[in-house]
């Protein structure tokens, strides 16, 4: 018998436990972003060809797997007819996706930069105009808050988890609708986001995440089992059905 609680990192898991195992006492504490590693600033990219890609630059770092749906992003950028796509990552669909991107975008509008180290990721976030993630059933997506910490807007799948993570720091869209996806990319690249992406990312800072862990542990030791984390309260305050991940 569970006598304490279960900490989950995803609203999807929180919803599942609330619905199926209400006695499990779940607490939502998501992954945190390290603001000592991901910050706004000028991009220091040595590759001149990357620096000279046509703007806007759309960036996605992801496993090349089917549920990431990178082909939808390639299609949307091709439909847009302007700008460039940079992909980072590797996986089972690598060859097919790279061939598709080369065919749809050509070498002038597309680059694959392989698997990047943390500092290289920061520079790519800074170089890009928009970060994109069209995946389905993504538990969280820490790359989004890393991009936001570098003050880059995000365009992602329209579901409850992404709407919660992004807040006013990006756009959600039906990524299976190529025209709508392309329009969202264009809008995100044209809009003045001010400091909103970074401000939203601060909600997921490592310091805030650590405080939530401390509060949950201290509360449970003191017998306070009815408490909720700031992340649960923020999620539950969203319009719609608070207990479901959509």
List keywords for this structure.
246 residues; alpha/beta; six-stranded parallel sheet; 11 helices; elongated; disordered C terminus
Short description:
This protein has helices at residues 11-20, 48-51, 70-80, 94-109, 118-127, 142-149, 160-166, 178-190, 196-202, 206-221, 230-236, and strands at residues 6-8, 26-28, 57-61, 84-88, 110-112, 130-133, 154-157, 170-173. It is of the alpha/beta class and 246 residues long. Helix 3 runs parallel beside helix 4 (94-109), helix 3 packs across helix 8 (178-190) and helix 6 (142-149) crosses helix 9.
Explain how this protein is built:
- The chain is an alpha/beta fold.
- 44% of the residues lie in helices and 13% in strands.
- Helix 3 (70-80) runs parallel beside helix 4 (94-109), helix 3 (70-80) crosses helix 8 (178-190) and helix 6 packs across helix 9.
- The radius of gyration is 19 Å and the shape is elongated.
The share of residues in helices is 40-55%
Helix/strand order, N-terminal first: EHEHEHEHEHEHEHEHHHH
Note the gap between the termini: 30 Å
- Percent strand equals 5-15%
Mean pLDDT: 94
Biggest pleated sheet: 6 strands, parallel
Strand order of the largest sheet: 5-4-3-6-7-8
Please describe the topology of this protein.
Elements: E1 6-8, H1 11-20, E2 26-28, H2 48-51, E3 57-61, H3 70-80, E4 84-88, H4 94-109, E5 110-112, H5 118-127, E6 130-133, H6 142-149, E7 154-157, H7 160-166, E8 170-173, H8 178-190, H9 196-202, H10 206-221, H11 230-236
Parallel strand pairs: 1-2, 3-4, 3-6, 4-5, 6-7, 7-8
Helix pairs in contact: 3-4, 3-8, 6-9
